[in-house]
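During the first year of the project, the team set up a workflow for recording each protein of interest as an amino acid sequence followed immediately by a discrete structure-token representation. This format lets reviewers and collaborators read both layers of information side by side without switching files. As required by the reporting guidelines, we include two representative entries from the current panel. The first entry is reproduced here exactly as it appears in our internal archive.
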Amino acid sequence: MDAFLALFEESRETIHAVAWRLVGPDEAEDVVMETYLRAWKSIPGFNGRSSVKTWFCRIAHNCAVDWLRKRRHVVQPLDSEDEASGEGGRETGQFIDTRQKDASRIMEGSELQSTIDTALATVSDEHREVLLLRFSDGLSYAEIAAATGVSIGTVMSRLFNGRRKLIKSLAALGVKTAGGWL
């Protein structure tokens, strides 16, 4: 039990990030707890073909998707105006280093983060998920493939197309990217 808990705690931040991106900040902790319970019950099925972190991410992804399915049957969908304004929508994660000390740089960073969040909201869920797992959480292609249940080729395709769509959206918002890539 102690060994399992230590492994889970090592991956907890990434597990929480996966849950947060899929279900939002209000329900992320519930999904993390569900992930913990499912992982504990599934220990005998862990075959070691992937890292423990990847295994936890896959379970977290599945728990979050199940959570969304359950919620979809209970909650009415938001209208597009609420989604566009960000009310009730999911947060998309931090790309900006909030440890910056200069207040004006923090303000610029939060404005840029808001613009990135707006641009990310225009990208499909599949593209947003792989972009955030890669660039925000630092997962490898193989880890993303295992966590999302798709092939590495699909991950590569989604990253490529997701980047293109995100760059177009950022350009429409007046943000230039270095060399056309993130």
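The second entry, processed by the same pipeline in the following quarter, appears below.
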Amino acid sequence: MLWSTAIIVLLILTFTAWLVVPIVANSSAGSSGQPLGVEGYPSSVSATGDDGRTRTLSVTLENPQGRGLDHLVSGDRLVVRGQGYDPDKGIYVAVCAIPNQLDTKPGPCLGGVPSTEVLDQPGVAAIEFAPSNWVNDDWAWRLFGARSFDDRDQGSFSAYIEVGEDPESGVDCAVDACGLYTRNDHTALDDRVQDLYVPVLFVK
């Protein structure tokens, strides 16, 4: 009985260390290479980061009805595609306030961090058309609701964002400068290399 308990404790400690050590040991890979100011409201942006990766972020309205990303209304759904991202690092995808200084973590973000509810079916990419999405290829994080990358070799992913007002965030994207952002998740919070954004504007 004592041996069984010891083995279970050892397995738990090993699993915890496997999750925590990469977070603690993570170091910044530098800047994403995207300038702070993006002109207009393009549907796609690209930048080459300090890690040598060229990332592309594309955003389209599910039902544009003649509107662009500068005329979003509550309930609009955005289809987000990314390519060139580092699949060894998880990312959050959300609408966030654009910071005033380069290489500053974007935020606050609408909808907060994505849900980490444990899924009944491990690995199922169940987060769709939510205020924010979480993409992480590690199987352990997928148990907690993360979507996996579409193609690791291409560093590509898909995300599905439903925009809406979020008074608790303190951000009003009809007034404040906002963008649909990707940024590293909690496993590399201080690493700005995957901070890429497409500007968006809400209308009342």
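For the second entry, the following points were noted during internal review. Residues 69 and 200 are 5 Å apart (CA to CA). The radius of gyration is 18 Å. Both points are flagged for discussion at the upcoming steering committee meeting.
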